[in-house]
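Consider the following input, taken from an annotated entry for AraC-like DNA-binding protein (Crossiella cryophila).
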Amino acid sequence: MTAKAYSFVREVEAGPERELRTDRHYLLYASAGALRLTADGQVWLLPPARAALVEAGRPIQVSIPRPVRTASVLFDTGFAPPPSAPLAVFDLSPLARCLVAECGAWGDPDAELPPYAETMFAALAAVTWRLAEQPSPVTIPAGRSAELRQALRLTEARLGEEVRFEEVAARVGLAPRSLARRFAAETGMTWRAVLRRMRLARAIEELVAGDAPVTEVAFRVGYASLSAFNAAFLELTGRTPTEYRDSCRG
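Applying the prediction step yields:
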């Protein structure tokens, strides 16, 4: 007998990207730290304020930049219906996070659930399936061509410095105008907009990983002005850096 649903609560060390595919619907979530999810040419960061709902059989790529505590949940396809989309990343409500924590007590994939546990997993499915209908727009493009993927890697490696587009273009062997066209064609964004997204994603990692002051985090990711960092963070996430950190720990 296999469980109708079960939790996967583990302390996991940092590791490279690997493909993940399950025969169950998968609520991918970290209760501490942050996961990185790649699919369809996009990258999502999953701190404790966000989760991904992945339909059974859907392949994704997951990497772990720093040690995390997973609190994911897997649902049998006969217990929970298919999600409205094969993949959705969304913000978790306080209720959803409480239900995830409550379901963490049942982690045996082969055990029959007691009635109370089955009720909790059913409630979690109902809440998260509803939340997944409003996915988060905060993504980072992954790029399709080798040149653009290299440009993205070079940019991300120098977020705390003054990065020049012309230098990145030279490193990948393209003229700046050609690389700019690649960004527009493959990501729908300018290089400057992608750089901004990357800096804010790195800031989220820093905020949820430790207790460094917000000012220090802003400087680490390349912002010279705290007010500019706060404004950019608020525009992208709808919260200030302090509010976001609190929400990840709440």
